[in-house]
Q: What sequence folds into this?
């Protein structure tokens, strides 16, 4: 899995799940369709018009697949809809100094790569991508490396091996278990358990 993309810099700490997707939009159980309401209160003015100042509404940012956020991204409630909204919008990876634990798990389960890096590195990436919307960030999951040629940075990142395996295969934990069905049935049969 490699992601080569421009980025959406959101230099805001403690972005919570209600800011990511307001509760009034949690009316469906299908994961599709939440992206249009991602960061709704920031993307739209009170009269419903698009807020041209918000970064997601800037045309030069429309194809970004990487978000760079402040500290403690995804705090607040446990709603999985927040990860659904991020994924449905088209974000494939989020870089921050820290994620709320439940959001981080939800991100993995929805095919989003959450990467935690030191504040110094995140601040450099935030500043460069804010200054120049064309700055590309490259993420190589297999080799666990982030690079940004514009600032000559190469930075390794950590990820749990199981989470990495699931992302590399494009599956979540449930699909991982389903893929082991034949081995599970064989084990239960060997034990003499009814299957």
A:
């Amino acid at each position: 899995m490699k992601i080569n993309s421009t980025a959406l810099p959101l230099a805001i700490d403690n972005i919570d799940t209600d800011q990511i997707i307001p509760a009034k939009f949690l009316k469906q159980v299908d994961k599709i369709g939440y992206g249009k309401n991602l960061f709704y209160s920031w993307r739209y003015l009170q009269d419903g018009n698009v807020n041209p100042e918000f970064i997601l509404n800037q045309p030069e940012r429309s194809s970004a697949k990487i978000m760079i956020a402040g500290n403690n991204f995804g705090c607040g409630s446990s709603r999985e809809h927040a990860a659904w909204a991020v994924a449905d919008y088209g974000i494939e990876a989020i870089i921050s100094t820290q994620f709320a634990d439940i959001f981080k798990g939800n991100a993995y389960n929805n095919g989003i790569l959450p990467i935690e890096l030191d504040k110094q590195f995140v601040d450099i990436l935030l500043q460069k991508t804010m200054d120049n919307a064309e700055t590309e960030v490259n993420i190589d999951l297999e080799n666990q490396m982030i690079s940004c040629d514009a600032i000559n940075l190469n930075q390794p990142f950590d990820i749990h091996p199981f989470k990495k395996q699931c992302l590399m295969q494009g599956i979540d934990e449930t699909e991982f278990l389903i893929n082991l069905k034949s081995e599970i049935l064989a084990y239960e049969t060997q034990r003499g358990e009814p299957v």
In short: The helical segments are 17-20, 40-43, 81-89, 101-109, 119-131, 161-169, 173-178, 181-190. The two ends are 37 Å apart (CA to CA). The mean pLDDT is 94. Residues 11 and 123 are 8 Å apart (CA to CA).
